[in-house]
Amino acid sequence: METGLLKDKKKTNIPYMCIRGITIISIALMFFPALSPTNFITQAGQAKIKGVASLFTSGVSYSSLTSGLERAFDKGWLNETYFMIMFVSCFVFILGTVALTVAMCMSLGNLKLKNMANKPLLGGAAGMLLGMAGVTVSYILITNSMDTDKVTTVFPTGLPMYIGITAVIFVLAVYIRIRTPKAQPNEKPEMESKYKLFLMLLPFLLLVFAFSYLPLFSWRYAFFDYEAGGELTAENFVGLKWFKLLISNPAYTTRLIRVLRNTLVMSFLGIATSWVPMIFAIFLSEIRSVRFKRFVQLATTIPNFISWVLVYAIAFAMFNTDGFVNTFINSLGGNADTNYLLSSDFMWIKMLLWGIWKSLGWSAIIYISGIAGIDQQLYEAATVDGAGRFQKMRYVTLPGLLPTYVVMLVMSIAGILSNGMDQYLVFTNANNKNVIEVLDLYVYNLGIGSGDIPLSTVVGMTKSIISVALLFVANKVSKAIRGENVV
Amino acid sequence: MADNTEVKVKKKKKTRYSWQDVVFNICNYTFFAVFTLMCVFPFYYIFINTISDRDLVKAGAITLLPQGISFQNYIDMLKVDTIFQAFGVSTARTVIGTALMVAATGLIGYLVTKKEMWHRKFWYRFIVITMYFNAGLIPWYMNMSMLGLTGTFAAYIIPGIVAPYNIILVKTYIESIPAELEESAFMDGAGFFTVFRKIIWPLSKPILATIAIFGAVGHWNSFTDSLMLMQNTPELYTLQHILYNYLNMSTNIAGIMGSGGGSSDMVEGLLNAKVIKYTVSMVTVIPILMVYPFMQRYFEKGIMLGAVKG
What we know:
The structure holds 2 protein chains of 2 kinds. By secondary structure, chain A is an all-alpha fold. Chain A is built from 21 helices and 3 strands.
């Protein structure tokens, strides 16, 4: 009896599984311009039309659907009414998809809820079918009415694919509608908490996917000869060309080596001075006046909370031609008008010092709370043994903080290629360009500055992969030293 | 034995201020005083230059004390459309972005503590693992334009709603709340969302306040998203972006600002680029300095955040 029930449950689940899977796929496909059935016009008069509108965009923005076709409408090469039909059809398709999604969520519930889901399920499937029919009709109408001398089209490969998907969804929906048994009339719509909780989390999971996982998909630009506004097609697939260019073309290699040198120098300077906050904390704890100590802490953490742009504004106010340093010297009777910001001398040291200025007070906090956590009996014992102030600092405080320090140090291995870009971007100028350009800034300059999307993707991608590898190394090291993972 | 120890302690007390100690103390206090001054003085210097007489500032006469105090610069600054607008954009993104982030983080943090969730561990890892990898700047940019967020205000808000590190903090905090409190509510027939709203949310206020403060600072300070995504929509520039642009302009700001509206009197008054740069800097930093005293008590929780980019 019971096994029979279970079997029955499984049987009804299979069509649901299928339709859920297909729905997810079709939702994802909606966002790909290349697969959209609305992109079939390649040229209208002089204007080259590129397939930029995905099915989703076509359904929500009429101007995106018809971008570049305005002249063709004016000249009468294309009939605009048919495009409106297409727009409405796409919109209906999207509405259908939304209804279907709602039905899919409801179908996770009990039989009653499944029954209730049948309405949006059938309605959604019908809407999608209707939408696709509308798109097909408008496609036929457009191609038959257009001026073939002026307008060139290609067959939208996405159209049969969508018709196929929609038909399968519709058949499944009808099958489910027929096969789902009726719930008891007094049954209440309910859902197991495991699915309820999951559905509450689902919108956020989609956000994570869209902003953290989906960017990985853009790595594909590294393998194409892509120019801004262009398309990725089989013709401009170039394989590993950009990777090879980066290591074989002397112009690129020289710049890359220079950038890597800057990056590593900045990182190693950072690591070499990473003990400074710890010493800062130890010395600060030696100050007896509580008020003074509090004030120091308050004041020295401010720089951490301002942006690098503001740090640059401060640098400007202090070291510019008519900044504080020069005016102060002048007020003492000197005659100074050096613009310290333009010079590229000791740039690495200057960058390091700005970094320390910004973060020292803040980084020290973790050690200050570490000192507060050291057992007071250790100090008492040291006093009993005749240790002086310096000996206590050396033999009690320092060893107490060392474990924290080691963790921080190990973690900085993973970030060795990531200096961040803000600091270097704001301080960069024509004079110091060669010594200040670190990897993150290089990627920015290459991609946004020069618009070289493929090459900058290659650099960024390689950096990301090496960074993840370094993170594993750091984790292993930490495990070997302290017996616990940092990640 | 006991007497012996006492003697030793007394001895230490007597030799407490040896000459080494005195030298050390002097050096120590001096060092911290100088470093503190280095952290505070620049703000003070910029401030006194914005409230002093413009001609004196132009002549470089203001070094340590303000002269001819007037707040005219700030009043004029408000009349410049671009700055006023940017202030609005920055404020809006800080308020809306932080509110949504905190609400979402609270809810997610609660949901991932619920062991009965379908594949809870997997989804939790799915979120948290994103802290450790990054597709890179350009793929991120291409993704944003693929999603149609380039040039929209939503680009400031939506990507920041799910903040993995904050979720870990909130989750850890919620796990420390006694389960009995929830259970009794479930007994009374409350749903998950009701329990979250009526019990979990009020009880997690300390940690939510912490992430709110640090989230707000992050929003206020963020600048590269405006720089990259708003290239064709100057009306959506953040204040940081405007400041960056002004700092990079050599001298001829007045012309640009004149086209942004405002009286010719003001343009004349602000002709000195230095004054403009200083005043915009102050406008950008003042909100941070204002919330700063409130932030202090969240420092120790916040150090774990570490994610505040500035």
